[in-house]
Amino acid sequence: MSSSVRQLGSDVITLVELQAELLQVDVREWIQSFIRPLIALIAAAIILLATAPVALMSIGYLLAATTELPLWGAMMSAAGVGLGLAAMSAGIGVWLLRRDRRILHRFSAELRKNVQWLKETLRSSPATNAD
Fold it and tell me: 51-102, pLDDT tens digit by residue?
């Protein structure tokens, strides 16, 4: 019986080591696939933050010049357009985050399999030793 317990302990330690290695691989792949898009998004955000106020002010002045809105009304309309675009962008970002739940999918799948194997092994252990 003690050899069975030692073997089970050894198997569990091996599984934990393999799970840790798989986690490292999954995290490394996720980071590598995430760096380039993150750099592009940061650059886009910096450019957007620099140009958005100018664009919204221009829209406000254009509205004031081409409509009968007072300047404050035209500026508020332009700000509303900016807020609407920001809300749509945030909604798309949240939707994309919810859609992409594949991060660490291999690690999670293997962990479930290994836990299930361990449960089955522990359940069947006393029956095997009784023989």
Answer: 999 999 999 999 999 999 999 999 999 999 999 999 998 888 888 877 766 6
Find the DSSP H helices in the chain: 2-66, 71-99, 105-130
Q: Decide: 70 and 78 in contact? Cβ < 8 Å.
A: no
**Pair of tokens at residue 3:** 């050899």
Residues in contact with 25: Cβ distance below 8 Å, sequence separation at least 6, in sequence order: 106
The reported pTM is 0.49
Three-class SS state of 87: helix
Matching residue, tokens 């080591």: 17
For residue 66, the number of C-alpha atoms closer than 13 Å in the C-beta half-sphere is: 6
Tokens 């380039």 label which residue? 36
